[in-house]
Inverse folding.
């Protein structure tokens, strides 16, 4: 198979984005978990909570460094590899990226230094504030980047300007409060919280199995299980399917996820498992559950869900309409201000479908010259490859439900069984550590692969979005990223494991000071000598 | 939204041109000393503890400083999409090298002191050196190329095409003038880093920083003057030949541009802009004198002034050009035809007016909390030091 610029650019973007997202969810969740732990420390004054804050905070730091570093690649890459995309939608897409810098990156990056270096320089409440600002900053950055991504899925608040040959913003509020973006934000952030909870749970379980740092591990499990249970419920219930009715490609994505070739009358059934066959246009051996798809896809029992075949027919209509828009656009470009009102009217009536005409550029230089066969081919191009979406979605959802079960179990043991955990459960918690990452990566795969053949749904095809580069350019950077990122990954994992094995730093002096300070209060509670077990072990 | 009509499009474009300068200068002033310290690391600090002192002078702040660069990228994307599209893809391999340096640097800061092994630490020290020196050099090289014009052209669809094969493009970037501006940039940030070390470090590290820094400062001054003369008499400039439509749509192909004898014309048209190079030179001279005399805080301020003047002089010389095209002058990107839409510029301006003062305030607060010198004791006693 010969790879062209588009394939290589996609490969590089997918690789660097998925790599970046190995670190992001843990940053998002661990920042909040650490802030919660420090809040308990400030409220109770017990050194064990400070020790927990510092320990998990250090692991946060190791992870954060690579998350930040690989994030820079993401921001550069739009311009480097997707320069026509950057030109074509930068007027809208660039704004949330810049806002992310203004509102979020500065906040987290400026205060993360103080989080590590400020323990002796700030008051307790001062330091706690810093920690929360880091957590808020990282979550804000997720908000803005998902507003940018949500716009690619559902490009609202913008229209095409023939003078500048690009999309321009018409309403910032529509872009910001895009329903797809908001749903994605809640879903993604919750997924990050689940990831961090599973991580904290798993590492703590390992300490319990080894009989080390019992106090720290038990408390950490309690925090992780409570926070994780709430987040796991949120990630499943507030999945980002709620925006799937919004646009053509979102509906196509939904139909592909479902392997639903023909439209179904409401309420549609959900295909639990099956074997989607792209050529035969059917899903074989399908096992259906009635009503569920209608509920997932439309949140109602009365809305019809379109199947792939119907959506392809719709795409064909829009391609024909897009050709009319393209024709008018060429006239406008030639005649500029002298263009007749009639041509401008035609353009405006069809400009929403202009992107569909661009789908033909894969086959002909000028979409107006496209043959019937090419139009049909381009309509079929709007169907993403079904089977990977079908399976990726199902694995992700199954994992999502299993997180609820795991977190509920540990929450129950923690709350009602005296923090006593059977060994098999602890081993289970250790073994499932990688699973939230798998779920998160699959989620992004469904979102992005499912949007193909578009970078911006209905507006700009992926094939047109790239830069004027050579295959040699791309092979060089692709190889560079692969080597470079592999080395970083090995180094990161090595450090992470080293510091997990080493365990928390125990400040004995601090604990003694605290004991002396609280001796009176502790003694009067039950009359016993304080600390049969020491607070920081 | 009607609100944005209150500020006219051309004024917004000038404001965003100035803000672009503010971001680049902000980046050079803050992350500039981090990169300078990185580039100085092998020379000012020889033992492990000296190196840790040098690293920890920037340890708590480099992360926030680097955001100036990230925000710069984001702001170019949001306010000048054609500039973002053309420059990032046109300088593809150079961008990749900068990217690699900027990725390795955060990791090096975080990981260097997390293991005892001498080889481990030496490797990361080299990473810090490269992570500081390479971008510092390449940013200057980029500026040198922008001043000469970059070989790209825009198709009627406004798709940017470049001339030359990929390796030729990269080699073409390293032409003599651009190498000179690259050296100026590197020397300038090394001077700035030295001023920072002289301010934040003690003893031998500060002493070595001062002596290397004053040499770098002199190199900056010489190189800058040399580049200025070369630019005035040896490099062609660009000018509009069609009427300037400052309020028009952002389409570079709507205007006509030709090459002129020199950028020097700008200084006859707007003599006041000569203030920028004068301030730049004055700041650098004072910084060198400060380094030699062992003054600490004021030296840092002088080197900041030097950087401010130097970077401003480039922008002011080229105004209204931002990225001229040597291949097809008509495709050149200028302030008047390569911005975002009126609405986007307005929205982003409001966001900047709200958040920039906040950012400056909390950044200042963080520096205040971290005020004072970093000593060897600080490094050995703290469990969180790098």
């Amino acid at each position: 198979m010969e790879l062209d610029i588009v394939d290589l650019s996609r490969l590089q973007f997918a690789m660097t984005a998925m790599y970046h997202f190995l670190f992001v969810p843990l940053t998002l969740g661990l920042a909040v978990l650490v802030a919660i732990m420090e809040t308990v420390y400030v409220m109770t004054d017990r050194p064990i909570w400070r020790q927990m804050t510092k320990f998990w905070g250090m692991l946060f730091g190791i992870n954060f460094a690579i998350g930040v570093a690989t994030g820079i690649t993401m921001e550069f890459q739009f311009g480097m590899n997707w320069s026509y995309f950057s030109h074509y939608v930068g007027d809208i897409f660039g704004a949330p990226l810049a806002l992310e810098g203004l509102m979020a990156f500065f906040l987290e990056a400026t205060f993360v230094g103080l989080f590590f270096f400020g323990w002796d320089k700030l008051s307790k409440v001062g330091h706690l504030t810093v920690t929360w600002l880091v957590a808020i900053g990282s979550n804000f950055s997720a908000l803005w980047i998902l507003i940018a991504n949500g716009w690619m899925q559902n490009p609202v608040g913008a229209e095409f300007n023939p003078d500048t040959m690009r999309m321009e913003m018409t309403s910032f509020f529509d872009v910001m409060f895009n329903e797809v973006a908001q749903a994605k934000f809640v879903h993604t952030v919750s997924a990050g919280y689940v990831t961090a909870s599973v991580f904290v749970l798993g590492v703590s379980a390992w300490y319990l199995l080894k009989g080390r740092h019992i106090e720290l591990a038990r408390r950490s499990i309690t925090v992780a299980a409570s926070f994780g249970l709430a987040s796991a419920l949120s990630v499943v219930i507030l999945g980002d399917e709620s925006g799937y009715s919004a646009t053509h490609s979102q509906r196509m994505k939904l139909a592909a996820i479902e392997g639903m070739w023909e439209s179904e009358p409401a309420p549609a059934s959900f295909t639990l498992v099956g074997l989607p066959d792209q050529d035969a246009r059917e899903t074989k051996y399908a096992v259906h559950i009635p009503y569920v798809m209608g509920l997932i896809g439309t949140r109602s029992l009365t809305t019809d869900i379109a199947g792939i075949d119907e959506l392809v027919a719709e795409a064909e209509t829009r391609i024909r309409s897009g050709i009319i828009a393209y024709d008018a656009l060429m006239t406008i470009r030639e005649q500029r201000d002298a263009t007749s009102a009639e041509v401008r009217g035609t353009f405006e009536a069809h400009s929403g479908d202009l992107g569909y005409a661009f789908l033909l550029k894969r086959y002909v230089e000028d979409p107006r010259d496209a043959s019937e066969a090419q139009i049909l081919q381009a309509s079929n191009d709007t169907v993403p490859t079904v089977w990977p979406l079908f399976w990726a979605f199902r694995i992700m959802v199954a994992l999502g439900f299993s997180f609820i079960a795991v977190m509920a179990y540990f929450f129950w043991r923690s709350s009602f069984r005296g923090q006593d955990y059977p060994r098999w459960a602890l081993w289970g918690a250790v073994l499932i550590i990688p699973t939230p990452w798998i779920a998160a990566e699959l989620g992004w795969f469904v979102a992005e692969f499912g949007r193909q053949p578009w970078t911006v749904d209905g507006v700009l095809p992926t094939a047109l979005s790239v830069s004027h580069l050579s295959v040699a350019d791309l092979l060089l950077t692709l190889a560079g990223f692969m080597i470079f990122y592999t080395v970083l990954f090995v180094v990161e994992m090595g450090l992470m494991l080293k510091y997990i094995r080493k365990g928390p730093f125990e400040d004995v002096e601090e604990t003694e000071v605290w004991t002396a300070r609280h001796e009176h209060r502790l003694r009067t509670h039950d009359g016993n000598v304080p600390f049969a077990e020491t607070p920081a072990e | 939204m009607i609100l944005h009509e209150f500020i006219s499009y051309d004024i917004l474009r000038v404001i965003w041109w100035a803000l672009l300068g503010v971001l680049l200068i902000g980046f050079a002033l803050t992350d500039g000393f981090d990169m300078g310290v990185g580039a100085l690391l092998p020379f000012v600090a020889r033992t492990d503890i000296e190196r840790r002192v040098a690293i920890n002078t920037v340890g708590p702040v480099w992360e926030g400083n680097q955001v100036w660069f990230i925000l710069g990228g984001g702001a170019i994307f949001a306010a000048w999409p054609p500039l973002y599209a053309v420059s990032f893809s046109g300088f593809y391999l150079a961008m990749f090298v900068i990217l690699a340096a900027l990725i390795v640097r955060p990791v090096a800061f975080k990981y260097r002191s997390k293991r005892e092994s001498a080889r481990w630490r030496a490797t990361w020290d080299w990473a810090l050196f490269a992570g500081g020196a390479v971008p510092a050099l390449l940013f200057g090289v980029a500026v040198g190329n922008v001043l000469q014009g970059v070989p790209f052209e825009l198709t009627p669809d406004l798709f940017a095409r470049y001339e030359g094969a990929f390796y030729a493009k990269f080699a073409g970037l390293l032409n003599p003038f651009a190498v000179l501006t690259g050296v100026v940039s590197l020397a300038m940030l090394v001077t700035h880093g030295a001023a920072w070390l002289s301010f934040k470090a003690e003893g031998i590290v500060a002493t070595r920083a001062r002596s290397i820094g004053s040499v770098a400062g002199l190199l900056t001054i010489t190189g800058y003057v040399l580049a200025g003369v070369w630019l005035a008499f040896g490099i062609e400039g660009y000018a509009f030949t069609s009427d300037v439509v400052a309020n028009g749509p952002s389409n570079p192909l709507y205007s006509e541009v030709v090459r002129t004898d020199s950028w020097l014309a700008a200084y006859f048209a707007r003599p006041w802009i000569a203030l920028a190079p004068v301030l730049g030179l004055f700041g650098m001279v004072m910084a060198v004198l400060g380094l030699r005399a062992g003054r600490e805080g004021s030296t840092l301020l002088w080197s900041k002034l030097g950087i401010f003047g130097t970077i401003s002089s480039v922008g002011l010389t080229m105004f209204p050009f931002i990225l001229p095209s040597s291949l097809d002058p008509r495709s050149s990107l200028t302030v008047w035809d390569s911005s975002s839409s009126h609405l986007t510029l307005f929205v982003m301006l409001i966001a900047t007016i709200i958040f920039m003062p906040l950012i400056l305030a909390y950044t200042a607060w963080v520096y205040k909390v971290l005020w004072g010198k970093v000593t060897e004791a600080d490094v050995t006693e703290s469990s969180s030091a790098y």
Q: What stands out?
A: Chain B has one domain: 3-370. The first helix of chain B runs from residue 9 to 44. Chain B is about 70% helix and 5% strand. Chain B has a mean pLDDT of 90.
